[in-house]
Queue: 2 jobs
Job 1
Amino acid sequence: MSATTKQRIVEAGAALFRRQGYSGTGMKQIAAEAPAPFGSIYHFFPGGKDELGAEVIRISGRAYGQLVPMVFDAEPDVAIATRNFFIGAANALRASEFEDACPIATVALEVASTNELLRLATAEVFESWIKALAERFKRNGLPARRARELAVAMIAILEGAFVLSRAMRDARHVEVAGEVMAAAVRAALKERPVGSRKVR
Amino acid sequence: MSATTKQRIVEAGAALFRRQGYSGTGMKQIAAEAPAPFGSIYHFFPGGKDELGAEVIRISGRAYGQLVPMVFDAEPDVAIATRNFFIGAANALRASEFEDACPIATVALEVASTNELLRLATAEVFESWIKALAERFKRNGLPARRARELAVAMIAILEGAFVLSRAMRDARHVEVAGEVMAAAVRAALKERPVGSRKVR
DNA sequence: GTCTATAGAAGGATAGAC
DNA sequence: GTCTATCCTTCTATAGAC
């Protein structure tokens, strides 16, 4: 069964917003890319571009967040899993000619000071990613506060490495960020005696 | 002596691009904000919006890069200086209601896949920041390669923390990033025996 | 160099036939 | 639910008087 018109609109919006940003993408362009009749966008999203934008942010954010369990379930050592996450991100960047980085970062920066509805949508996505990561770190024996700090740092360095890599066209920056982050995770785990670590 | 018309145009463009992004800012808005007659923009920047954008990126990048010597000259311990850099950035965010973060990151993401002229301008700015930071780390005894990796990581985690802080309206994320980065710098310095460190 | 007016294209959004 | 036509605004850019 093929995708519905609404799904195609959301997917086209996601691809264009990620690549060109929110302001840089027109509704007509989304309709052409979907493809879908122009009027159908307003049929499914009566709130217009903002409503579509919020939906795209939520859907893209949920999809990307699923990479966390995918990568961390596959590797018992969290420091290695952390490094693997960045290696995967770097490879995705290369395979997409530096387009496939964070699905919402460009929009997040564009709307942070200009569109409260969309800013809140991006904030909720970031919070969900931080929570998911912090949960992983907690399972490995880190206290809640420390786990959250590491999670914030990991999302931050990943996002920033995406900025550098896309601008400078060098995916190794993401891998370098991964090495530094993995070392930080390893160091945090060593802060506590081995006996106090929970086994997963 | 007051600012020239051209300077006012560049400054207005810098403020608006940082806040609203490149696509989200109109030439007329820049003229109104400067303030300057609309035609004057094209008098000083015959290449239009792209030429103005490239100039804004270069000027803003140079100005922000000057914070590196400012912060690192004031504190001999590089790990502490690193932390101080992030504390200063967090305070600037708070003082500006989360507008005054990286002057070029929003534009960098917007143009990375759509405007090669501006992408190159942002890449040159990032490269200059990385070089300046790596130089500081080298002065403290780190080998060139390691120094550059740390510099990339530091710019990355700062940029990403800006994204999170602006979206989530919480400047502490920048401070958390600073603590993690300062620890990474401290750990890197300890990798080598004390005797092999160069004194500045 | 300053400023106004306007061209020509593209933007978001709506109406209404089918 | 699909699709076209169109409204009105805004955009970048240019022309030309002063």
Job 2
Amino acid sequence: MIMLVDDDFDLDRIAESGQCFRWELRGEGTYRIPLGERCLYIRALGDGRFDLDCGENDLALWREYFDLKECYSAIRARPDPRSDPFLAECAASERGIRILRQDPWEVTVSFIISQNRNIPAIRRSVELLCRAAGKSCVDGRGEAFYSFPEPEAILALSERELNECRLGYRGRYVRAAAAAAMDGTLDFPSLRTKTPEAARDALTELYGVGIKVASCIQLFGLHQLDAFPVDTWVRRILENEYPDGYPFEEYSPYNGVYQQYMFAFYRHKAL
DNA sequence: AGGCAGGCTTTTA
DNA sequence: TAAAAGCCTGCC
């Protein structure tokens, strides 16, 4: 079916943004996107038109996933080219990035896995974990894929099976997060009721989750758009471009969206 | 108390 | 060989 989108929405830029690790480019600009036990095939046709191949009644679900109720063009237009030329250029150059509404559990595990690794390595480990513990599913085109594993399925893996996902020392962090999800220490519905500060504190209580990974879970998993993950790239950006400080107050409550524009811009510049 | 150095698995360039 | 969307531990 055809979906019309009257806002910033660039599949390639989202796929490269580093917020999701299971999108798969299938040629002809078509992405296969797993979500739970479903899969979407989507392709941009131009002029805000997108070709979607998904379940009959799943369109609303995917519109939610892509956060289509939020107006990113308005967020993007906020930085003033005169007072903040750097951010204005980042936002203009990276137009089309959106913050997906992903499964918070998948986001948590994925970003625990992400520490001290580059994106290809992260994708590999996540896929291995899905194959090891996820449910075997078939998509609408008859192709097999694996769902992202539930905490219980991860806990059921032997140490050796977990090691085969190439997680290294992060394996015990992933296991601890799964245990916390099982015993209720990690509970996303209750995290959503907390203030951002309280959610951050609760997340950093998890073994292997520091401030950076907690911010990523808040931004990409809890959709707290003001969360501002500071990784090696963003740390360099703040040092190089904002030696006198970054105006967080001015860009609240969308600091996380601007972080994404800057992160993508710097990465493109470096490549 | 809070900051800092060193170590950690593995992959990528 | 260094760096990679970092965090933990031990030491001061």
